Amino acid sequence: MRFCEYLRTTVLLLGTSSIALLVIAIGAIVREGSTLLMLITLVWNVLAVLIGMWLGRRESAMEPIRVLLSRSRPEPAFPKIEPGAVLFSRHWPVLLFAVAAGVGSFWIASLPAVTAGYGLIWSLAWRKQPLAVEAIEERDAVHFWIVRSATFRQPKLVRVPAM
């Protein structure tokens, strides 16, 4: 799977899971009837959006992505294309946390709201990274592909000449 598409999918997954968690949080807070908790949820998530937008304001690639791109190994041909396996092997922890926070709302109404805030920060901070990677690909006339690797290890990228 192309690395820029992987980054787009990551941003969309985090953003949509955060919105879903906010809906669950609002339902749990309404169930409890706490106006204070609703206000805290609103303030935290607005703050999270502002933090994420501030962190993601730069057009250039972030340092971890630059390091990952510089460590990519050159390949003469396209790697094995496994988008489903790559996405699942890298993103199952995000899905697990989202489901756990949603289920946890039955006991702790604020849990999905807090989790959603962190997801919003991350997704907004990384929102411009696919474009930065595409700019590097265009400049260097290559395509970066992410290949299947262990979940908790650094992702492995290969560099293929653009056609």
Structural key phrases:
three-stranded mixed β-sheet; mainly alpha; 163 residues
Structural description of this entry:
Strands 1-3-2 form a three-stranded mixed β-sheet. Helix 1 runs antiparallel to helix 5 (111-125) and helix 4 runs antiparallel to helix 5. The chain contains six helices and three strands. It has 163 residues and is mostly helical. The mean pLDDT is 90.
Please give a quick description of this structure.
The chain is mainly α. It has six helices and three strands.
Mean pLDDT: 90
Helical percentage: 55-70%
Gyration radius (Cα, Å) is 18 Å
Total count of helical runs of at least 4 residues: 6
Return residue spans where pLDDT drops below 50 for at least 5 consecutive residues. Answer: none
Give the spatial strand order of the biggest sheet.
Answer: 1-3-2
- The quaternary state of the protein chains shown equals single chain
Sheet/helix structural class: mainly alpha
Count of distinct strands: 3
Strand-residue fraction?
A: 5-15%
Give the overall shape, derived from the CA principal axes: elongated
The rounded distance between the terminal residues' Cα atoms is 16 Å
- Outline the biggest β-sheet: 3 strands, mixed
Q: What is the succession of H and E elements?
A: HHHEHHHEE
